[in-house]
Design brief:
Elements lengths: L1 H13 L2 E4 L5 H12 L4 E5 L2 H11 L7 E3 L7 H11 L7 H7 L3 H10 L5 E4 L5 H11 L10 E7 L10 E5 L9 H19 L4 E5 L10 H16 L4 E6 L1 H5 L1 H7 L11 E3 L3 H13 L4 E8 L5 E3 L6 H18 L2
Helix pairs in contact: 1-13, 2-13, 4-5, 6-7, 8-9
The protein binds acetyl coenzyme *A.
Length: 334
């Protein structure tokens, strides 16, 4: 796959420091060996060093070259706790509580990033999306001008006529259950940035609905129309159109009938779904029934690259995600 090869090659040149909080997890350790052997990134594993070495031995992998950090004993704990108290002062977080929270690698990892000790984080092979994201939301927060974090999937479909040579970007498939108009607009604009940064595509964003250009009247349709308007104000140069049904967004013949004036309809490469139900179900349908390869979720809108794995992830998913996170760190945060 050409895109992934390019992402991995870029990652090799960036040499970013990626922290993996699930330091004893077997797929994480196997991925670490591959990443180090192929020089894809520098890896920081969090956990008890004895337990990590033991787990690596049981997996039969060599992780020499990874930096191992124990969140329970590390020298930076007190400094990180002071930072946490400052960040959460409006919520009344005490230093004692912050120190206790730092025992959790999923809290320690974002604090490493916040303090400039790591460039990106990936977790979620054994932890839920909420547990990975909550500390990142609380301590790393969103990037300037963005209020919501969302999750995009790179979808590699088997027909180069669709999207950007067979690559489409779907969002938000992972985070916001029911975005309002403004949030949906932000999701569209940040997804366009992700698509440009990682895929190198010229974004053509379709704001999806069950209606095309007023064919149905409903408050859910109004939400998409309003979100499209806000997104255009946020990014006037962006090619974005809505509301569009999926067929109008992707099929030139349908677009000619339903949205003949649109510069997006019939050739969209970014699909923004109206809510998480449609997006999450939609990407899995394309992946499972359409046999597309799905890479993600690539989290966007956060002030640093932090990505969440699916608990069903494979070793190569972790390797790919480390490379994508390194690319995000190098292209979107420097
Ligand atoms: N962007 C930025 N900040 C956010 C976001 C967001 N999308 N969502 C919540 N926050 C912040 C809140 O403002 C709050 O900050 P504060 O403590 O400073 O006030 C903090 O995060 C916690 O907010 P809660 O509302 O308590 O959020 P909660 O932890 O309940 O939920 C979560 C957040 C877990 C992401 C929730 O939206 C969720 O469960 N989403 C669905 C995730 C999921 O299951 N996805 C499908 C699986 S993934 C897949 O299939 C690929």
């Amino acid at each position: 796959m050409k895109l992934l090869e390019r992402v991995i090659k870029n990652s090799q040149s960036y040499q970013k420091r990626i922290v993996l909080p699930e330091g004893t997890e077997p797929r994480t350790l196997r991925a670490t060996e591959i990443i180090l052997n192929e020089n894809i990134a520098r890896i920081i594993l969090l956990g008890n060093p004895v337990e990590i070495m033991q787990a690596a031995e049981e997996c039969g992998v060599n992780i020499k070259g990874a930096v191992v950090v124990d969140p329970k004993t590390d020298d930076r704990r007190s400094h990180y706790a002071d930072m946490m108290v400052e960040i959460r002062k409006s919520k009344g977080l005490s230093k004692e509580k912050a120190l206790e929270m730092l025992n959790d690698p999923l809290v320690f990892a974002p604090m490493m990033i916040k303090n400039g000790d790591a460039d990106g984080e990936i977790a979620g092979a054994v932890n839920s999306t909420g547990d990975v994201l909550r500390p990142a939301f609380q301590f790393v927060k969103t990037s300037p001008g963005v209020s919501v974090v969302s999750g995009a999937f790179l979808m590699f479909v088997n027909d180069p006529h669709f999207g950007h040579d067979g690559i489409l970007v779907f969002a938000d498939c992972a985070v916001m259950p029911d975005p309002n108009e403004r949030e949906l607009a932000e999701i569209a604009v940040t997804t366009a940035k992700t698509a440009k940064a990682i895929v190198g595509m010229e974004p053509r964003v379709a704001m999806l609905s069950f209606s095309t250009k007023g064919s149905a009247q409903h408050e859910r349709v109004n939400k998409v129309v309003e979100a499209t308007k806000i997104a255009k104000e946020m990014a006037p140069e962006l090619k974005i159109d809505g509301e569009l049904q999926l067929d109008a967004a992707l099929m030139p013949d349908v677009a000619r009938l339903k949205a003949p004036e649109s510069e997006v309809a019939g050739r969209a490469n970014i699909l923004v779904f109206p809510g998480l139900e449609a997006a999450n179900i939609g990407y899995k349908l394309v992946q499972r029934l359409g046999k597309a390869e799905a890479i993600g979720p690539v989290l966007q809108g956060m002030a640093a690259p932090i990505n969440d794995l699916s608990r069903g992830c494979s070793v190569s998913d972790i390797v790919n995600m480390v490379a994508i996170t390194s690319n995000q760190a190098a292209t979107s945060f420097e």
